[in-house]
């Protein structure tokens, strides 16, 4: 399987690691009974990954929730891919994702490559909640802000612009799995055309991400432009989200049960990675929004936090890092 445009260097090694990983699942009784389906997703599955910054995402859906079995699965994955230098990760999802799908599930059903088990049926974008765009803005915005002074800035800057485009396609129900068609839809999006400089930067980032064409502006200029575009995107998205869902700030609040589940999820996740029990009484995801607060002064920040609190305790997001 060819994963990169510019080199075949890692192809054989990755294929060997995949075969070792799948074989270990088949021959380990508790993993064989635990795993439902495994496949490749993201740019690697679409044949659009390249060696500078791209990674290999392995997508897994389990038959039931079991933190101990997932911990074992992650250890087997790590040992199987121990010789692979390209970033790689195993994303483990609970079976609830079939009934409450997210955007990653949508991508997997449309363009994932099956490695083991039975692929789920393709789903409609209409089944993806609109607040999935908020997840995109958070998970693309935070790495961008965290890498302002690192050598991964260009990669995360490109991911940010692409993520903003995808978020608004989710909002308008025009998101598609085909990345080339998706790029066209982003450029045609009326809301995104209202963000000054976005379309031009988006096209530049597509050239960088998919064709390895380097930026011709200074890093300082891109930092400034990225901050302005991200702040404007947050304001526009949240305003459109509230209008389309007819929701008000004071009505968006997690229930006591959701808040308990949030802390329980943190405790279980901590045990999976560190083998220790740790209980938290504070919001376990607060660090993920601190960067936004530090760099952006968006008028809708309070609303975004409340929405994040709501969706982050949903069972559909019970997966590994």
What characteristic shape results from the CA principal axes? globular
Element order: H for helix, E for strand: HHEHEHEHEHHHHHHHH
Write out the strand line-up for the largest beta sheet, numbering strands in chain order: 3-2-1-4
Strand content: 5-15%
Compute the number of strand runs. Answer: 4
Helical fraction: 40-55%
Sequence stretches where pLDDT stays below 50 over 5 or more residues: 1-10, 313-321
Report a brief summary of the structure:
This protein is of the alpha+beta class.
Describe the structure.
With 321 residues, this protein is α+β, with helices and mostly antiparallel strands. The protein folds into two domains: 117 residues, Beta Polymerase, domain 2; 192 residues, no CATH class. It is 55% helix and 8% strand. It has 13 helices and four strands. Strands 3-2-1-4 form a four-stranded mixed beta sheet, with helices on both faces. The longest helix is centred in the C-terminal third of the chain and has 27 residues. The protein is globular. The relative contact order is 0.11. The N terminus and C terminus are likely disordered.
Q: What topology does this entry show?
A:
Blueprint: H1 11-27, H2 29-34, E1 35-41, H3 43-46, E2 56-62, H4 67-80, E3 88-93, H5 103-111, E4 113-117, H6 132-146, H7 153-171, H8 179-188, H9 198-211, H10 219-245, H11 256-274, H12 287-295, H13 301-312
Parallel strand pairs: 2-3
Antiparallel strand pairs: 1-2, 1-4
